[in-house]
Design brief:
The protein has about 170 residues and is mainly beta. The protein contains two helices and nine strands, in the order E-E-E-H-E-E-E-H-E-E-E. The two termini are about 15 Å apart. The mean pLDDT is about 90.
């Protein structure tokens, strides 16, 4: 249950310390580049709309992973980005540390939206994003991004698709 979210709980045996990933939202005026995850079977993000990114390779910094993953998934080479926060994403007792970036500078030609191996890329009006099937906690960090909040740490704990607790900069939200 909810206990898997809190390390101070006695006897908490999480499988490992979690994996590191990057998550990036490319920004073009009033739009975010979103990835509709429809291609992979057994994808925890299946049918959800998320940003682009992926798992760190050994020895990579968050920025190196960011640039590599964005290039692999979109064909674009980032030239300007901001490191916005870290999201501790706990799903059914397994942790992932997502290094959250936004980017508004790139070069090269974007691949056709349906040619991405991970799903379909689409530019979406920022105001429409909360209406899409996104993770509930993503609404929290989109709000923080919109507020231009300085670097933040957001912890989101899920059981299945249900957000059961959240904390911002170490303070429990619920």
């Amino acid at each position: 249950g909810r206990g898997a979210c809190f390390a101070e709980r006695e006897g908490n045996k999480m499988a490992d310390v979690g994996r590191n990933t990057t998550l990036c939202y490319l920004e073009r005026g009033s739009e975010w580049l979103m990835l509709h995850r429809v291609k992979k079977k057994n994808d925890v993000n299946h049918d959800k709309w998320i940003g682009v990114g992926g798992k760190f390779e050994p020895g990579e910094s968050p920025e190196e992973c960011l640039v590599r993953e964005v290039k692999e998934e979109t064909g674009l080479t980032l030239t300007r980005w901001r490191y916005r926060g870290i999201i501790t994403f706990v799903l059914d007792g397994t942790a992932e540390y997502m290094h959250l970036f936004t980017a508004d500078g790139w070069e090269g030609q974007m691949i056709r939206g349906q040619d991405c191996a991970e799903g379909v890329l689409e530019w979406v009006e920022k105001g429409r994003v909360p209406e899409l099937p996104i993770w509930e906690g993503d609404k929290l960090f989109f709000r923080l991004l919109a507020e231009e909040r300085p670097f933040f740490s957001l912890k989101l704990c899920y059981e299945g698709d249900t957000l059961v607790s959240a904390a911002l900069d170490g303070q429990k939200l619920f």
